[in-house]
Amino acid sequence: MIGEALLDLLRAEHYACDWVRDGEMADTALRTHRYDLVLLDLGLPRRDGLEVLRNLRARRDNVPVLVATARDAVADRVAGLDAGADDYVVKPYDTDELLARLRALYRRRAGQGEPVFSHHGVVLTPATREATLDGQPVQLSAREWAVLEPLIARPGTVLSRAQLEEKLYGWKDDISSNAVEVYIHGLRKKLGAGLIQTVRGLGYVVPRE
Question: Where's the Response regulatory domain (predicted)?
Fold first, then answer.
């Protein structure tokens, strides 16, 4: 019930989320996907959250991790932080505080060398989620941003529809057959038809020049 409530809360705040329910699934997800933030419970079935965290840091993955747990002893907090957690919140926690801590972790991550992406008058600032076109602000939805950022971050690299779909939804979400096309169409209307090009049979690309 807590997991479902958190998932609804985070999606309402425009986070694209994967929710896994045990430590082994968490370990697999963190090995195979790239995430901006991790919200990690320690009391997980099949594999303890501390082990998941240690495995993550052993792979030199520096993704920010907020530990949320009922283990409230000082020794438990110290163990979590020593294992590589960036922050720690104890259940029961206030949801506004949880969201504020997540935002703080994202800002901290963004301040550590997060680039500003610029291409033909379009500028994306990941730290603030701001987009401009020729200096004028452009309002992008969370999912438009999710499609555009990986494309503009790697100009000249073709990304398939499947790769972009992964940016849009969590593992359990239903994905409409034309979801990516819909968001690409919206981005072209807002940012210009030439920014994102279709590579027939392969996917989409922001050209280098």
Answer: 1-106
Judging by beta carbons within 10 Å of its beta carbon (0-12, 13-18, 19+), is residue 159 exposed, middle or buried?
Answer: buried
pTM, full prediction: 0.58
- Nearest of 141, 147, 145, 171 to residue 159 by alpha carbon: 147
The whole-angstrom separation of Cα 19 and Cα 9 is 12
Rounded to a whole number of angstroms, the distance between the first and last alpha carbons of the chain is 49
Contacts of 45 (CB under 8 A, 6+ apart): 21, 22, 23
My answer on whether 34 and 131 are in the same domain is no
Could you give the CA distance from residue 173 to residue 193 in angstroms, rounded to a whole number? 29
Q: Six-digit token pair at 205? A: 């690309």
Given 74, 91, 110, the domain boundary residue is 110
86-124 confidence digits (pLDDT tens):
998 888 888 888 888 888 888 777 655 556 788 888 998
